[in-house]
Amino acid sequence: MSSSNNPLLLQEGLFDIGLPAAAAETINRILEGIPEKGKTMIGNVFKNSLFSSLPTIWRRRLLNDAHNYVTQMKDIGIALSGDSGNKFADLSEEDRKQFMQLWHNLEVIITGSDDGIDRAGQDWFLTKIGNIQRASKVMKKSFKKGIYAKINGAPVSVDIIDSIDAHIYEDFQSAIEAMLENIQVWLKSHKDEYKKIPDIIKTSNYYALQALYRWADQWIRDVETDEQKIYTFDDTSYWYDLKINNCPVEAERMGHCGGDSRASTLYSLRYKPKGRQKSSSYVTISFSDSQNIIYQIKGKLNKAPEEKYYKHIAWLIKKLGNPKVIEIGEHSDDMSGFKKMSAWLEENTDAVVLNAASKIQQMETELNNMQQDFTQEYFYAKLNFNLDNAEEHHPVYSMEGIVGVLIPKEEFSAEILEKIENEILPTREQLSEIGFIMDDTSATGALMSNVAGPPMVRNDDIVFYFYAANLVVGGITDRTWNHSSDVEDFARFGGDILSIDREVTVNGNRFQEDLKRGLMYVGLLDGGPFLSLFHGVKSGKVQENSDWVIETEDQDGEPSLIWFQTPLIFVDLRRLELEGVDEEYYTKPPVVEKILNSNTFKEMFMNEISIESLVSDTIFPEMEVWDVHFENYSNPSFVIQAAWAINDQSNERISEVAWLWINSELGKSDFEKMLNRAYYKTLNKMFNTAAASGQEDFNFPGGKRLPVNESISHKDIIKKWKGFKGF
Asked: CB atoms < 10 A from the CB of 264, how many?
């Protein structure tokens, strides 16, 4: 291995090698006590490890993060083009070239390959954490003074990049924690163990990180050191100091979690029969040196230790200086066993031993500490709990989360804003409607339908509060309060709330967009008719038995206008080949977009709907909306949203055809198949026309883009439909 590419050469310390700060801090914390050279070696191994070389769960997560990074940067650029009143295709050639070149460069950086993103999947990505850091620098430069700033007319906030980076770094940090779980056990066994790292990597056929992980795992399973044996009894059993607070081997041997985050170390009572290679474990004790507390004394399967081990436990308690013992049977159903052990230890040692009745007090203390920690992290969220003392030996608690979603004051008209500030609006009924939309599983899926209270005016924003669902029970129950006897559930729940709370602080987040649609639906924000109708459909008030039919009613309750509106349906250029489109020219995005907007294609598409609906004639409702826009540039695809209208003056046959479409109950996948078939048939018709006329080139039939466009920004929708008073 040459000196130029040796990842283990030590010219700098752990915090100098270019790792994200959180990653370096995690390594430093987990490897506390390891010499700086050892920490730096490990840091370099993680820095130079491909995401694709990590264990499956982290490989998939980080590679997906890398792919999404590219997609989100492109989406932001396209959105800027739209927000400025243009479509991306309408930008100047120079600006489009700058965007395309920047995106290609971004793909090259992220993937680690000169080809960029041109193959299915992400497993081939040669992405390392440094690729993400480099990409962020490039994009921030473009946001501040490059093409993004140029199109925006001013520098673009880099907060979104920081948010994306933080998410990736968090996943990377989690991967480090998982991978170092065993490695730390091995490295902490002796101060010079880190010196073996270069040889282990050099002689292994695995990636560097995998080589170290496998070595550590084998070492843990097969090796015990005499230094960690602190006392051997006459029966040859012995106390073994694991020197860590989480040990997978101990977990496997004992059938419990094998760890305690409160402890500084674990002690294991072990016995190795003569002639056996490995010992067996019988009691695990978790001890915090800084707190001078024994938190747990567990036998196998989280039961109380057998009585024959009481004297061994008493010996260790005395050896540790009679620390406080608060083993009260947590995570166990063996309360009688722990009461018996606690009584014996209280009588036969000088330690203060808590009994099982103290479990409620301990739970309350832990929950309070967690609540305070999360409260310091939250911006607009709240986390509460309530103890249930019905069973003192097995207390349970309930938990509640509330998340605030912000809407800038400027979004509201002066009249509505005044009523909100004076607590006249929104009404209870409006809040109920908004909560229903926020609970839509196709939207956030993380907020409950019951609103947590009226909105609050804070500085330049109005904050709407919603109960948050615990992801453990989300989708199973509508209860806001969820019961548990495990304090770790509260930590997980608080983490779920924290993730939502961080996301809602970024302007334009998905929760905010859902809330805007809800506010439009109840009339607190101006919006287009399609948005209002769409939410009417979701609430079940304006349609039945179909997810793509919207209707309004006149005063007599009879339909006066019916809209057939498709879901967002996609044309994936890679799938066109399956329908026989094998000439590259006809899969180029500009060509595809022109064909999709042509009258010929629209006719073919409606023919496909009729065929699927078993309609033989060619009478169609009047098309009101046909919107085509780019969805993804890396694997080019378009998204289409279409709507047709029938009013009470339409002829009878058109109405019949329309209802045949409805009764077919076509889904999104059906539409996507029909779009691809229609594209192929459009090309065939074009070629046949060209051949009949003797023309070498075919002039695509021009389809006039209709003025109604649901894909444009919220502000543009307001501008277009400001005067809309209803059908």
From this structure: 15
CA triplet 100, 105, 108: central angle to 5 degrees?
Answer: 125
Sign of torsion over alpha carbons 139, 141, 147, 149:
positive
Mean pLDDT of 693-714: 35
Considering only CA atoms, which of 319, 280, 273 is closest in space to residue 299? 280
Residue 318 has pLDDT above 90, yes or no: yes
Report how far residue 486's alpha carbon sits from residue 490's, in angstroms, rounded to the nearest whole number.
8
Q: What distances in angstroms separate CA 87 from CA 42, 630, 713, one per listed residue?
A: 48, 10, 12
| Nearest CA-CA partner of 623 in 518, 527, 706 | 706
Nearest CA to 364 out of 335, 328, 322 is that of: 328
Do residues 273 and 266 lie in contact, with contact meaning Cβ atoms separated by under 8 Å?
A: no
Q: What is d(CA 362, CA 356) in angstroms, rounded to the nearest whole number?
A: 10
pLDDT in tens, 462-484: 999 998 876 544 444 444 567 78
CA 338 to each of CA 239, 323, 498, 713: distance values in angstroms, whole numbers, following the listed order: 20, 18, 36, 63
- Return the minimum-mean-pLDDT range out of 69-83, 289-303, 690-704: 690-704
- If one counts every other C-beta atom within 10 angstroms of the C-beta of residue 348, the result is 15
Cis upstream peptide for 426 (omega within 30°): yes
What is the enclosing helix (H) or strand (E) of 37?
helix 36-47
Residue 643 has pLDDT above 80, yes or no: no
Q: Residue 553: how many CB atoms within 10 A of its CB? A: 12
Q: How confident is the model at residue 634 (pLDDT cuts 50, 70, 90)?
A: very low
> Which comes out higher in pLDDT, residue 43 or 546?
43
CA 187 from centre of chain: 33
Distance CA 717, CA 617 (A): 36
Beta strand residue intervals within 504-657, DSSP E = 549-553, 559-565, 569-572, 622-632, 637-647
Beta bridge partners of 468: 401, 447
Q: Which amino acid is at 475?
A: G
More confident residue, 315 or 638: 315
Taking each helix axis from N to C terminus, what angle separates 129-145 and 36-47, rounded to the nearest 10 degrees?
Answer: 70
What is the CA 226 to chain-centroid distance, rounded? 46
The residue among 277 and 699 whose pLDDT is bigger is 277
Residue 11: predicted pLDDT: 53
Q: What is the distance between the alpha carbons of residues 307 and 330, in angstroms, rounded to a whole number?
A: 19
The Cβ of residue 357 has, within 10 Å, a number of other Cβ atoms equal to 11
Task: Let me know: does 332 contact 304? Beta carbons within 8 Å.
Answer: yes
Count of CA atoms in the C-beta half-sphere (13 A) of 29: 12
User: Which contacts (CB < 8 Å, 24+ apart) does range 538-544 have?
Assistant: 538/436, 538/437, 538/440, 539/433, 539/436, 539/437
